[in-house]
Amino acid sequence: MLRKKLDGRLREASGSSLYGIVQSVDENKRTCTVQIGEIDYEDVLLYSVENSDLKGFVLIPVVNSTVLVSRIAGSDRFFVDLFSEIDRILFTCGDKMSMSIDKETVSILSDKTTFKITQSGFTVTQSDFGLKKTLNDLLTALKQLTVPTGVGPSGIPINVASFQQIQQDLENYLEN
C-alpha cells in the first residue's frame, strides 16, 4: 500500500511544471541551463532530442528570461514548455531550406538563394548574384543607351534623371 502511494506521488511530481530562469543556452545542442530555486539544471531540452543536425523548429530563449520547465515522465530529463522571451527562432526543413528570426533579422535560405529582411531593407541573392546589383547594372545601362538612326547614333536618353532617381531609391530598401 505504501509503495503504491509513493509510486503515485512520484508520477505526480514528474508531471508538474516549474518556473525557472534561463542561465545559458547551447544552440548547437538545442539545450539550456535553467535555475529552478537554487539549483541549476543543465541540458534542459529546447528540442525533442539533443542534436543540432535534426530538422525542425526550435525556440531559443533569452538568457535571464523565465521559462516553464517540465520533467520527462520517468526520467531525470527536463524540457522547456513555455517561454517568456524568445531570442531567436530556428526552422529547418529538409537539407536545403532554413529560416532564422531574431530581433534584427529574418533570414530565409533555400539552397543557393537567400532572402534577408532587416530594418534597413531587404536582400535577395542567388549564389553570387544580388538583386540590388542587377537592378543597378540595368539602370546604369539604360542611362547609357543609344540607338542607331539613319543619321548616326542617337544621344543618351532624355530621361536619365528619372533613371538616376530610381537608382537612388533602391538604396531605401535594398541592401545587396
How is the secondary structure organized here?
Blueprint (H helix, E strand, L loop, with lengths): L1 H13 L2 E10 L4 E6 L2 E7 L10 E6 L4 E6 L6 E6 L2 E8 L3 E6 L3 E5 L2 E6 L2 E6 L2 E2 H13 L4 E2 L2 E2 L6 H11 L6
Helix pairs in contact: 2-3
In short:
With 176 residues, the chain is α+β, with helices and mostly antiparallel strands.
Which characteristics define this entry?
176 residues; alpha+beta; OB fold (Dihydrolipoamide Acetyltransferase, E2P); five-stranded antiparallel sheet; 3 helices; 14 strands; 44% strand
Kindly describe this structure.
The structure is a single chain. The chain contains 3 helices and 14 strands. With 176 residues, it is an alpha+beta fold. It has 2 domains: 89 residues, Gp5 N-terminal domain (OB fold (Dihydrolipoamide Acetyltransferase, E2P)); 42 residues, no CATH class. The strands form 3 sheets. The protein has a 7-stranded antiparallel sheet with strand order 4-7-8-9-10-11-12. A 5-stranded antiparallel sheet has the order 3-2-1-5-6, with no helix packed on it. It is rod-shaped, with a radius of gyration of 27 Å.
Shape: rod-shaped
Provide the β-strand percentage band: 35-45%
Kindly report the spatial arrangement of strands forming the biggest sheet.
4-7-8-9-10-11-12
- The SS-based structural class is alpha+beta
CATH topology of the largest domain: OB fold (Dihydrolipoamide Acetyltransferase, E2P)
Intertermini distance: 71 Å
CATH class of the largest domain: Mainly Beta
Q: How does CATH name the architecture of the largest domain?
A: Beta Barrel
Rounded to the nearest angstrom, the radius of gyration is 27 Å
What's the overall average pLDDT, rounded? Answer: 86
Q: What's the total helix number? A: 3
N to C succession of SSEs: HEEEEEEEEEEEEHEEH
Number of discrete domains: 2
The major sheet is characterized as: 7 strands, antiparallel
Give the CATH superfamily of the largest domain. Answer: Gp5 N-terminal domain
Secondary structure: helix percent:
10-25%
Number of strands: 14
| Spans where pLDDT lies below 50 across 5 or more residues | none
